[in-house]
Amino acid sequence: QQRIFSGIQPSGGLTLGNYLGALKRFAEKQDEGIETVYCLVDMHAITVWQDPTGLRQQTREAAAAFIASGVDPKRSILFNQSQVSAHAELAWIFNCVARMGWMGRMTQWKDKTAGKNTENASLGLFAYPALMAADILAYKATHVPVGDDQKQHLELCRDIATKFNNDFGVDFFPITEPMIEGVATRVMSLRDGSKKMSKSDPSDQSRINLTDDGDMIAKKIKKAKTDAEPLPSELDGLADRPEARNLVNIYAALAGISAEQVLTDHGGAQFGSFKPALAELAVSVMSPITTEMNRLMQDPAEIDRILGDGALRANAIARPIVDEVYDIVGMIRSR
Ligand code: TYM
């Protein structure tokens, strides 16, 4: 029995990277008929400071982005993490299973604290991957679709599951498989082909936001950094051209074709003609999503209702699993 779990942090506006690397694929998995559980991880978001009003707004906006991207809250479970206490409860158990050394080796922790005094980082930021493992394992999820940047966290999730099973001599948690698939597992910045497209990049020109209108999307693509060569007709020709490769991959992901096919169709073209073609494609795919997000955001009470319904259904799966964990660990359960 397969069960998919994945999550997105509502810690700011979402980007084309989140759409192509995560949301679009979440909708595809649901359409393949697999059981899908999707979570807005508001408790992960507060590992760095979030303004309370902003957090609520961003959580609703992220929920709207899921739905506008094709996640159907009837066929999938869509909810925010803090409404299902199993996540926090299991995270505590995992804080006691995982080792400090494992957490200290996480590149995200190292990147986020690089050049800063870790004395002032929140304890939650350090323990973040244990909460992430709890998200997944509270549902005994077998598969987790994510972008490439989450790979190390998913390996840690497997380590935690393995250590828990060994420590207690049980075969309880599954060893979850990451699903890092397709051409858009790492969408890069439009300004620097060596950096990931990210909501936290100080330059708004570096990313396409799901809230950008068509004109803005076209403008950002036309200004994207490139080199002066025409597109090659074979993938090999992109090897040392990260910016060109990124635009080709974005085209392929948006069109639902392979990067090879993009080069068969556009090989030899200059960026002067490829960029307008990419802009037109991006606008045609993204604009309906932005419009639908805006429509959904008109009715925040309806979004909250959807999240509440999702939380009840999520809790029905996670509660018995976490109760069993308490039992395995040796906690008295007498009420
Ligand atoms: P987050 O919120 O940073 O990103 C959400 C999802 O979007 C993917 N992604 C990208 N994919 C391709 N190109 C990019 N430039 C890009 N930027 C982001 C991410 O890989 C991710 O799949 N720790 C997670 C959230 C989380 C989670 C979980 C995920 C919490 N619990 C349990 C899976 C399972 C995070 O910060 O993702």
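^ tryptophanyl-5'AMP complex. DSSP finds 13 helices and five strands in the chain. The longest helix spans residues 300-329.
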